[in-house]
Design goal:
The structure holds 2 protein chains of 2 kinds. Chain A is mostly helical. Chain A is built from 14 helices and 6 strands. Chain A folds into 2 domains: about 350 residues; about 70 residues, no CATH class. In chain A, the strands form 3 sheets. A two-stranded antiparallel ribbon of chain A has the order 1-2. Chain A has a two-stranded antiparallel sheet with strand order 3-4. In chain A, strand 1 and strand 2 form a beta hairpin. Chain B has a two-stranded antiparallel sheet with strand order 1-2. In chain B, helix 1 packs antiparallel against helix 6 and helix 7 runs antiparallel to helix 8. The longest helix of chain B is centred in the N-terminal third of the chain and has 32 residues. The radius of gyration of chain B is 20 Å and the shape is globular. Classes of the chains: A mainly alpha, B mainly alpha. At the A-B interface, helix 2, helix 3, strand 2 and helix 14 of A face helix 2, helix 3, helix 4, helix 5 and helix 11 of B. Chain A: It holds the Pfam family Cyt_bd_oxida_I.
Chain lengths: ~475, ~325
């Protein structure tokens, strides 16, 4: 493998891994804030215990998110220095603003939240988790602004003398039509992850220990399941908007998602196609007529461009070359995203039904579903990103810079191979540690609350409520 | 003032912020190995930085992002050129985050020992390598006509670079010890200050040697003045520690770190990464910069939000101002 292949594998591995933690962090920060708000308003101690329980799971996940997040910022420069030179004028700004506006908020106010239980007034303490949660959402917006530029470059001009894209309209970058559809789709997708996580963990606890805190886990489960279902419909709707924008700005990606080789109008939606990779022969296919036209254009007989004609068009526009992404990867990841997301909603609905009128189900299958449930939307999120990034290939910035031109010219195979091996190994070890730790705390169940503080004891002598 | 100069100053300020703040939490991390006796003391040490270390680390992320946005050429050359040291720093930071965050999550002594190893490793490696990297940037490294770094890993391990690394390592240790002196009470406080003073003698000697070397190499009056002030701040910090003035001792090391970083950036200006092969190939604030439009937008964002960030970060230090004693650590 050459430097390009290794750098691409490294980007894929580190980014997909980092992204296991991001949606849960975004969604769960808000759900924990909601739980604490419920306690704050009602004084119901069940919500306080839930806040502390899910708060701890959140923090374990958050730690992994920040640990793997630093690599993201560094590796643009380390492995993709020519890309950085080319887009720095545009891409760097949202990245820097993310740090200044979002990361500082998250880290400072989470620190205040974790350690401030007995140092801050309850209202101020509650505000801290909400501010941290807002920080995670800002962060998503600016990162997606940077990514959306790569999907659909706007607000720039090419400076051929300097060999770079230069920013001319920052507002256009922040209101990129791809960004405006991706941001809601992604944020709502984060709520699917967090809803499924809360619902799965709560139901598992109710079913395994029906006589231990079932009255507290039940409302948490319902909250999680409802969030999952509502967010599920939300991702479908926003995904539909996104499909239309994608068909317009990146028609090749939509064609690749469907393995649609020839222009078609009306175009069918492929549920399953088995055939040769170049589309010359189909062995078996199952499709819904006209659906792709509707998804792509909003009308039942709208024309959707096929891979072959787009390839021809791009060759005329950009010169000879292969402008097709990896079709099996795009085709299957697109389907896997929809399928796992749909299964999550189905599982959530079944669980809600099974727990109606205060029932605690006993089915072994449902227990297994509760264990798998948190993983489904998480996997759907990952597939969605693998699809959207692989579907952009062979471009790193669509239409402007091929991925192969972005790699660092000065780094050696040895260097990239070393870092690829180091991160893969380290991430593997961390995965084992993280999963075991999460399972341990899930199984422990709700924490007991500390006894009220002895009023005679001077505040200065009291033990820290939270100490490392 | 030129926007490029303004952004050079902003990046210098971000590095000052990063090294002054994370400097003391690296120092506390290293103290886990050299002074903590028993589990309670280790917990007390970690608790002194508990609420703030993560916020300190964000200064690095913002410094990196700001370099990317304001000086893409600098970012690209630096990060691809210093590949292996940055990889080591990243691994150090990752295991340190996990060590700090996960150490209290299980009670087994072996778990906590492993976390402590991660914390110490993740504090020593970046504390040493940041100094090596900064010194090399100022000294100049082989950069070719295309702005590419053409040296290797061992090019960076020259005497000046290594001396820079030893300075940050030892000064951070003293800075951390004085922070512990400020944030704890009882016997642990006394031992921290005593240790800080002992290491401080070595750190001070190394720092003076480094400052003199920098001054001779850069031939600039401002470098001598700032370097001299850094030395004075360090001596005053040490003297305050002897006098039992914990706040002033920590302020002294904080100022000395800030002034050493200012010395380095002053020596660097107007280059951002001088080439040791040919001065014409050096990256400068002008040839490495983004467009004026991007810099203008970034300036507005920085001018508005930096004071807000400094405001709430200061507030969080105020909220957690109380000293910690071993009695505060739950059994």
């Amino acid at each position: 493998m050459d430097v390009l292949d290794l750098a691409r594998w490294q980007f894929g591995i580190t980014t997909v891994y980092h992204f296991f933690f991001v949606p849960l962090t975004i969604g769960l920060s808000v759900l924990v804030a909601v739980m604490q708000t419920k306690w704050h308003r009602s004084g119901d101690e069940r919500w306080l215990r839930l806040t502390k329980f899910f708060g701890k799971l959140f923090l374990i996940n958050f730690a992994m998110g920040i640990a793997t997040g630093i690599v993201q910022e560094f590796q643009f420069g380390m492995n993709w220095s020519d890309y950085s030179r080319f887009v720095g004028d545009i891409f760097g700004a949202p990245l820097a603003i993310e740090g200044l506006l979002a990361f500082f908020l998250e880290s400072t106010f989470l620190g205040l939240w974790i350690f401030g239980w007995d140092r801050l007034k309850p209202g101020v303490h509650l505000a801290c988790i909400w501010i941290a949660a807002a920080g995670t959402v800002f962060s998503a917006y600016f990162i997606l602004a940077a990514n959306s530029f790569m999907q659909n470059p706007v607000g720039y001009t090419l400076n051929t003398e300097k060999g770079r894209a230069e920013l001319t309209d920052f507002k256009a970058v922040l209101t990129n039509e791809v960004l405006l559809v991706t941001f809601p789709h992604q944020i709502i997708g984060c709520f699917m992850v967090a809803g499924a996580f809360v619902a799965g963990v709560a139901l598992w606890n109710m079913m395994r220990h029906p006589d231990r805190d079932a009255d507290a886990f039940r409302p948490a489960f319902r909250m999680g399941a409802v969030v999952l279902l509502v967010a599920g419909f939300g991702t479908m709707i926003t995904g539909d908007f996104q499909g239309k924008v994608m068909t317009e700005v990146q028609p090749m990606k939509m064609a690749a998602a469907e393995a649609l080789y020839e222009d078609a109008g009306p175009a069918p939606f492929s549920i399953l196609t088995v055939g040769t990779l170049d589309g010359s022969k189909e062995v078996f296919k199952l499709e819904i007529p006209k659906l792709l036209s509707f998804l792509g254009t909003g009308t039942l007989d709208g024309e959707v461009r096929g891979i072959d004609s787009l390839q021809e068009e791009y060759e005329q526009k950009y010169g000879p070359g292969d402008y097709k992404p990896n079709i099996p990867v795009t085709y299957w990841t697109f389907r896997a995203m929809i399928t796992t997301g749909g299964l999550a909603m189905l599982a959530g609905a079944i669980m809600l039904w099974a727990t109606r009128r205060n029932r605690i189900p006993r089915s072994k299958w449902l227990l297994r579903t509760a264990i798998v449930l948190p993983l489904l939307p998480m996997v759907a999120n990952s597939f969605g990103w693998i699809f959207t990034e692989m579907g952009r290939q062979p471009w790193v910035v669509f239409g402007l810079m091929p991925t192969s031109a972005g790699v660092s010219p000065s780094t050696s195979v040895g260097e990239v191979a070393t870092s690829l091996a180091a991160f893969t190994l380290l991430y593997g070890v961390l995965a084992v540690i993280e999963v075991r730790l999460l399972l341990r705390y899930v199984q422990k169940g709700l924490p007991e609350l500390d006894p009220p503080r002895d009023p005679d004891l001077d505040d200065a002598d009291a033990p820290l409520t939270y100490a490392y | 003032m030129e926007l490029t100069t303004f952004w050079f100053i902003i990046i210098a300020v971000l590095w000052v912020g990063y090294l002054v703040l994370e400097g003391f939490d690296f120092g506390v991390g290293m103290l886990m190995a050299v002074m903590a006796k028993g589990e309670r003391e280790r917990r007390a040490l970690i608790s002194t930085i508990g609420p703030v270390w993560d916020g300190n680390e964000v200064w690095l992320l913002v410094a990196g992002g700001a370099t990317f946005a304001a000086f893409p050429e600098w970012y690209a050359t630096l990060f691809s050129g210093f590949y292996l040291p940055l990889l080591l720093i990243l691994i150090g930071l990752i295991v340190r985050i996990i060590g700090i965050e996960f150490r209290s999550k299980r009670d087994e002594p072996s778990w906590r020992r492993n976390c402590d190893i991660a914390i110490v490793f993740g504090s020593v490696v970046p504390a040493l390598l940041w100094g090596v990297a900064l010194a090399n940037i100022v000294r100049g490294v082989p950069i070719d006509a295309d702005g590419e770094y053409v040296g290797g890993f061992f090019t960076l391990l020259n005497p000046y670079g290594l001396l820079g690394g030893l300075v940050t390592l030892t000064v951070f240790l003293v800075h951390g010890a004085f922070f512990v002196g400020l944030k704890t009470e009882g016997e642990i406080r006394e031992r921290a200050i005593k240790l800080g003073l002992r290491v401080g003698v070595v750190a001070g000697a190394l720092a003076v040697a480094f400052i003199v070397w920098t001054g001779l190499a850069q031939d600039s009056l401002a470098v001598w003045i700032l370097g001299g002030l850094a030395a004075v701040a360090f001596v005053l910090g040490m003297a305050s520690a002897v006098a039992g003035r914990d706040g002033w001792a920590f302020t002294g090391t904080a100022f000395s770190i800030a002034l050493v970083v200012a010395t380095l950036f002053t020596g660097l200006f107007p280059d951002v990464m001088p080439s040791s092969l040919d001065a014409a190939w050096s990256l400068t604030t002008t040839n490495a910069a983004s467009t004026p439009y991007t810099l203008k937008i970034m300036s507005w964002v920085a001018v508005i939000f930096t004071p807000i960030v400094i405001g709430y970060q200061s507030w969080s230090y105020w909220v957690f101002r109380r000293r910690i004693s071993l009695n505060h650590i739950p059994a």
